[in-house]
Amino acid sequence: MAELLVLDLRKNNFNGSLPPLCIRSTSLTTIVLNGNQFEGHVPLSLLNCHRLEVLDVGNNAINDTFPAWLGTLQMLQVLIFKSNRFHGPLSPCQTKFCFPMLRIFDLSLNEFSGSLHAKVFDNFKSMTKLDGSDKGEIKYMELHNVGIYDIMYKDSVRLVIKGQDIELERITTIMTAIDLSSNHFDGVIPKTLKDLGSLWLLNVSHNNLRGDIPTQLGQLNMLETLDLSWNRLAGNIPKELTRQNFLAVLNLFRIVLLDRFLKVYNSTYGGNLELCGSPLLKQCGTSDPSHVPQPFEPEEEEEESYFVSGFTWESVVIGYSCGLVVGTIIWSLMFKACKPSVRPVWRWKNDGTRLGLETRTQKEATCGLRLS
After folding, report:
1. 328 — pLDDT class (breaks 50, 70, 90)
2. Nearest Cα to 58, choosing from 40, 28, 76, 36?
3. What SS3 state is found at 305?
4. Which of 54, 55, 240, 272 could potentially form a cystine with 78 if both were Cys, beta carbons 3.0 to 4.6 Å apart?
5. Is the pTM of this model over 0.85?
6. Which pairs count as long-range contacts for 142-151, CB under 8 Å and 24+ apart, including other chains?
């Protein structure tokens, strides 16, 4: 194992505890165990993987707290814990240099709780600058020469981007993302996120975050996707967000601003009922002071929204067309069924002599309708 560069076991049915990788110092740069049934804890033996760049253990059943000690891996760039059973707080590192190269950080769909410590994000030094930005170049993570057959392996990752689950077949050095969605984080959004100047995607939706949207988020000039939906945020939507050059999607649920705020939906506010001010129609200071925000029920409201949104002009046209076709077929069948039947009848003289056959129309149709 000492010469192994890539360990990719994704999308299998492996189960049990994670293997004790890197018991001895190895050359592993990529470990992908995504899409299995591994459980238990993250092995401490990973501390020996000094050259590790990608660690993806998403979509398993790992039951552990956040392994902040992974921050000592100075080369780690991609950390995916998505869809497991991680729990507890997002504890900051105890070392001075922690996750210095980290650019993709996905903890979504777990059971993390507690507040978002500002110190956690202070350590993400690689997200404060753009590699190759001064030269206008787009670089990719280094390709690995695997084996004696000169096979090239490309690092890839699967992320939720603008609401779509997308697989990136190659990871660029300008791709920076933080996804903490679908957990139980509470408290406020850290203002220190403003220092992550190269951040491209920030998703903290489906948590219990409270307070205002920090105006400092307007300093994230490279941000393209900001998802704060399904929280308990209140106050103004910062005008600073309108000055961002690359922001394509701002999702506060039911307030989706696309193409630099050209399109605004003000009908409802999802889990952020206390948001107010421009560009929304609801003005600040008009709420009842005695009003206390009520807990929302995401599943029922989402189902209702889906039911209402289903009635569009396309569905009406489709329903009318189907009804016309079915009605025509039924009418044709009824016409045939109700057609008067014709039967032969012998004709007789008064003296009992039979003259011959004649046809007569039956007065009662087989469908039970009286024919005239």
Report:
1. confident
2. 36
3. helix
4. 54
5. no
6. 144/5, 144/6, 144/29, 144/30, 145/5, 146/5, 146/6
